[in-house]
Specification:
Layout (H helix, E strand, L loop, with lengths): L6 H8 L7 H8 L4 H33 L1
């Protein structure tokens, strides 16, 4: 799936947001295979998108009421 020096895997990780976060690194440390780490990356991205949507929904309505 990846080359022997894992360079393609490392390039893929650079595109996943949140890998600099210690919480994400700790979460990924609990996985044992490369496949699970890729899955964790995808779930981490989905989680960040969900949190962004929740933040927008929490901030925008009060701003509209104040207008």
């Amino acid at each position: 799936m990846f080359d022997t020096d894992h360079s393609s895997f490392n390039k893929m990780l650079l595109h996943c947001k949140g890998f600099e976060d210690k919480i994400t690194k700790g979460y990924l440390a609990s996985f044992s295979t490369v496949k699970d780490e890729v899955t964790a990356c995808l779930y981490s991205t989905d989680f960040l998108i969900l949190m962004l949507i929740r933040f927008i929904l929490a901030v925008i309505p009060p701003m509209l009421i104040g207008l």
